[in-house]
Design goal:
By secondary structure, the chain is an alpha+beta fold. It has two helices and eight strands. Strands 1-2-8-7-6-5-4-3 form an eight-stranded antiparallel sheet, covered by helices on one side.
Amino acid sequence: MNVSTNAMTRSFDTPVRHTGSLGHTTYVGLPLADVWRTWTNVCLWPLWDRDLDAAFAEGALAVGVRGTLIKRNGRRLRFQVLDIEEGSRYVIRVDDAATALTITRSLSGDGTITSLTEEVTVDGPLRWFSARRIRRVLPATLLRLTSVLTQAHARLESVHN
């Protein structure tokens, strides 16, 4: 089943004093377990996040695990896993010079359609600048993720058939 994500997306902003929280939800016609396996594989993040050249974690995603994001401009950012609920959600914190991002990625599904939500809370003196950029790129990033997921699933199915 292939679900068109163009008509099935939702963005939301929640203004909070000293922080900004924004997010986006999209849907893909794949089982939740398949989506979870890809979304939690840190090395794959650059496939849909155009700002990343590479991403590494010091182990499988678990509370306390740290990792490195290498941006296309060469900057290295450290992240840490703050929380994880296996198969449904994880939270990471990315620290930059002037902002800190808390990223919550969550999934829910009915077996055939999975919703993917990414919520980003921005804190720090340049939060307005980061929030503006995230608001602009987040929907496209999640749509690229659904494309990567759909293509990978189609390749696997063609191998099995």
